[in-house]
Amino acid sequence: MDKKGKVFLVGAGPGDVELLTLKAERLIKEADVVVFDRLVGEKVMDLIPEGCEKIDVGKNVGDHPVPQHEINKILLREALKGKNVVRLKGGDPFVFGRGGEELELLSEEKVNFQVVPGITSSIAAAAYGGIPVTHRDFCSSLHIITGHAKAGAELSIDFPALVRLNGTLVFMMSVANVGAIAKGLMEAGMAKDMPCAIVENGTRLNQRRFVSDLDNIEETVKINQVKSPAVILVGKVCSLADKFTWFDELPLKGKKILITQPQKKASKLEEQLRALGAETKLYPCIKTEYIRPVAVPLEENQILVFTSAEGVHSFFNWLDEAGLDSRALAGKKIACVGPATKKTLKDYGLNCDFMPTEYYGETLGKEMVETGFADRDTKVLLLRANIGSEEILEILENASIPFTDCKIYKTEYIKHENMPEFSNWDYITFTSKSTVEGFVKSMGQADFEGVKAICIGRKTAEIAAEFNFQTLVSKSATIESMVERIVEDI
Q1: Most distant CA pair in the chain: distance in Å?
Q2: Domains along the chain?
């Protein structure tokens, strides 16, 4: 008999990928099959590795294209193939997630399973909305209720019991029945002016929060066209929402930013932007690959110059391929273009001997000559991309400094089948001239008048200006400075 696989019932949390548990992240990355719902966050889905089979069962409130009994059979079928199956559910699988139903068939068939709790939106959405679900000055209990009934059935809620509890009430899956809920609570004796709140898309970058009272909660939902997923909170703690708001106060909340860096390098920029509340999308316009084979004349040169972190990675990869290590650099001096390249060198255990005051290839060459770091008696080895700035070459030539321009990685433009509607985005980020050129090529047009472009430096901005972008230039050529420039523009 074939060996059975295992099913992991995993809570994906309320949407913000950083609220995913470490165990959930590990299991997603190790899965053979992921069976997922519609409400799983986009960034959580991005964690699923290439080659992993993804099965969309599309569950949403009141909309089950794949019936529950079919989902149960899918989990069993994949496990019986000997696969590790992750059943990825929004929020927590056991908080109105029907997780228990999905385990019944597996238990009957003696299929191994594990349950990984997730942060439930009933609490997370409230926290991101500035509402503490418990506070000893306002309540002594918390109650989570489903506001969704089975098809064709009426709500089965003991409203008088809820009112007597005098606690915080959190209604999940309740937007469609908000009127009936409010009416039931008021008829059971709850005050019409009891504070209430609605949090739509809780913890997600498109979150919206509305504060009301019980008598007006239905109208608030209608006027603002609140859609699922949303939670409705009823209780005195909701009066603290404006006082404790924090998520909606993030400086980039509501801003949409398109990131054009290569995918493996974009995480730092995206992390910083999302931490400030921005909605981001990766649209890599270039990719880099090591050039191999490559002849690196290491022994005959006294100064190594790195103009990017990617060049550092490629060089040390070549060093390892050649059967060498950092001892081969003994007695040599190292120059780098800026802090990111300097940090990458540090990661390989090396300190940078020279870094310019401005983080451009032109300034690097100019200041190496002016300070005497490089002179006519030293040979310079430039380790860089196949597409690079010509200024540094001209400066070294004019100063009669011997050098070798060694191209150790290449930059290529990426063709996209699905292009973004750039007018929907508040900013587009460019971290190099090649990202500008790659974006322009991918879009198939040359005029971007009115589109705001955040450029990592003046050289990148000069190229962007040629295509009529409205350029905003970072004060220094760093990711941190780019983010600061966006915040300044708000």
Answers
A1: 92
A2: 6-119 (3.40.1010.10), 123-249 (3.30.950.10), 256-285+414-489 (3.40.50.10090), 289-412 (3.40.50.10090)
Cα–Cα dist 490/470, whole Å:
15
Dihedral class, residue 402 (left if φ above 0, else alpha if ψ from -120 to 50, else beta): beta
- b/e for 419-438, b at 16 or more Cβ within 10 A? ebeeeebbbbbbbbbbbbbb
Q: Identify whether the C-beta of residue 122 lies closer than 8 Å to the C-beta of residue 172.
A: yes
Strand order in the sheet with 333-336: 286-290, 403-413, 380-385, 303-306, 333-336
From CA 74, how far away is CA 65, in angstroms rounded?
14
pTM more than 0.90: no
- Classified as helix, coil or strand, 33 is strand
For each of the chain's 490 residues, which pLDDT tens digit applies? 457 899 999 999 999 999 999 999 999 999 999 999 988 998 899 999 999 999 999 865 555 678 999 999 999 999 999 999 999 999 999 998 889 999 999 999 999 999 999 999 999 999 999 999 999 999 989 999 998 766 656 788 999 999 999 999 999 989 999 999 999 999 999 999 999 999 999 999 889 999 999 999 999 999 999 999 999 999 999 999 999 999 999 999 989 999 998 877 778 899 999 999 999 988 999 889 999 999 999 999 999 999 999 999 999 999 999 999 999 999 999 999 999 999 999 999 999 999 999 998 999 999 999 999 999 999 999 999 998 888 999 999 999 999 999 999 999 888 887 777 777 899 999 999 999 999 999 888 889 998 999 999 888 999 999 999 999 999 988 999 999 999 999 8
SS3 100: helix
> Going by C-beta distance under 8 Å and a sequence separation of 6 or more, which residues neighbour residue 177?
147, 148, 149, 155
- Give backbone dihedrals phi and psi of 230, rounded to 5 degrees, phi first: -155, 150
Residue 59 designated active-site? yes
Question: What is the dihedral angle through the alpha carbons of 259, 262, 264, 267, rounded to the nearest 10 degrees?
Answer: -20
- Out of 16, 37, 92, 213, the active site residue is 37
Question: Is the Cβ–Cβ distance between 438 and 412 less than 8 Å?
Answer: no
Catalytic residue among 16, 29, 32, 59: 59
* Annotation marks residue 37 as catalytic: yes
- H-helix or E-strand containing 303? strand 303-306
Cα gap 238→244, rounded to integer Å: 10
Radius of gyration for the chain, computed over Cα atoms and rounded to the nearest angstrom? 28
